[in-house]
Design goal:
4-stranded antiparallel beta sheet, 2 helices, elongated
């Protein structure tokens, strides 16, 4: 008697095919996701202009975050370094931390670092709105 060959696949072959399909799909998703914009990046209008970035020295101190709260020592993240109130960064001591700034005191005097850039008071569009005029 001649043994018949079954046309169905073994469970192992089905599992391997499914695994291969899943891996290829995951690889494609990684390639596709690499081209997506970062949703946590601030809008371009809030980022420093290239001209301002070029004029600022690369070793300038930058306030990145302030940490304040009940029962904790105020601190600031300055140029990537956590500095507690009274602590030192380079040749300056952190003497004051507020919600939006940090004050350093060094040999050249006091330096105030701000979280936010100064507000742009120029009206770029050239239009003005009265208080009663609705915005669109």
């Amino acid at each position: 008697m001649v043994a018949r060959m079954s046309m169905t696949m073994s469970p192992v072959a089905i599992t391997l095919k499914t695994l291969l399909a899943a891996l290829l799909s995951a690889a494609w998703l990684l390639v596709w996701a690499d081209n997506l914009p970062d949703p946590t990046r601030p809008p371009a209008g809030l980022l420093a202009s290239p001209a301002a970035a070029a004029s600022a020295p690369s070793d300038a101190l930058q306030l990145q975050s302030v940490l304040m709260g009940r029962g904790r020592t105020p601190a600031a993240v300055i140029s990537g370094e956590l500095v507690l109130l009274g602590g030192r960064v380079r040749d300056a001591r952190l003497v004051r931390v507020t919600e939006r700034s940090a004050v350093l005191k060094g040999p050249s005097g006091e330096l105030t670092l701000s979280l936010l850039a100064p507000a742009d008071t120029t009206n770029r569009s050239g239009t003005t709105l009265s208080p009663s005029e609705p915005t669109k």
